[in-house]
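Sanity check

After download, print the first record. It should look like this:
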Amino acid sequence: QITFEWMTQKFPSEPEKDRRDWLQVLEGQRFRTLGDVRRCDESDWKTLRLPVAIRGQIRAFAQSPPVSPPDYTNRGLPELSCSKTASASSTSGHLAVDPQNFDFKIDDDAIGPIYPEIWQRVEHQRIFEGHGSLMTIISNVIREGISVAGLADELRFLEEQSIPSLRPDGLLVRGKDNIPVGVVELKVPNSSYNEPGDRNFKKHCGQMYDYLRSEKENRHIVSPLGLLTYYDSWYVCQLPYEEKPHSQTITPLESPSTPSKPTRPSSSHEDPPSPEQNSPIQKYSRTYKEGKKEKEEDKVEEITSVLLISKFERSDSRFWRMLVTVLRKMHSATFCQPSANSPRFVAKVSSGRGIKWAKLGYGLTRLNLFELPRDDEKSFFLWEDLGHGRHGRAFLASAEDLSV
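Expected structure tokens:
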């Protein structure tokens, strides 16, 4: 469209009155678009009562090919520099695990063209000051990916959810109930942090392993996915396939419970079951107190932790397709609820010792609901995620003697 704004943009140094007069001449001859100008015969164009120089420039603008916005679909992310004052990332409370490579399959669905906000920002600033400022950039990248994936109305990215030791930097949530379906963890770049043989990298992988294992065992996502990023390098993370997982005895959930909005029990269920009730848990409680000999299923087996990783560089032409694929897989996550007596993987948390995962041969029916843990109890099993709020996450937890 040839408008006064267009005239101002093309002839900013010319007087406003002149620009309005020229626009009036063009409109009087029905020249409302550059297409109208292109279709005009050269001899007719010269009869317009416009200054020769202005008339020639407008004609040249009309003949120039339209300029398309830049397409960054295959350009990944721009290079950034870290401020010298930025501190290294910590991994307190997490143990190192063995990372193993796997081939993450990227969807072939066409995306783009896209012009991510981050490419506009780096025109003015290419240095980040530390974890906080870099997390803002990562958040924008994730939200851009959500938009490109066509999930703007169905998937949201939240920063720093949950409690220390089980608090990822970012959480992907689905639907109006904010159901968690994926995690993102950011580490400030370091020359060796993202090398598979580095001890710190293995601890970072251990941190992601704990998050994903918690998503699987406490929130019951069948195949949780996570993103571990150093900005320059991004790792798609998942747990190894388990040939005979404890979750084989599970049943599909039509709608997973919402961790962010735990349901308040009704008044008729506020008290624990009566000791006189002949429930499976009470049966076990009586037997347990009578000093039953330990069976094979009572043993606690600590498992070897392995995290599968697939690496993508920020400059990879497949970066945005990778991100879109991950986000779509997170969005389509399925949930399954173990039966009450199903064997479990549980997090074993101990003060000052980090998180370990244990394989138990029994389920919730073995919990002793009528006995509290000792005051000096040092470690606990985390069985179920009961929800989270402003101050952290709540779990159904037991001592090793199964007192709750």
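If your output differs, re-run the checksum step. Summary of this record's structure: The first strand starts at residue 81 and ends at 82.
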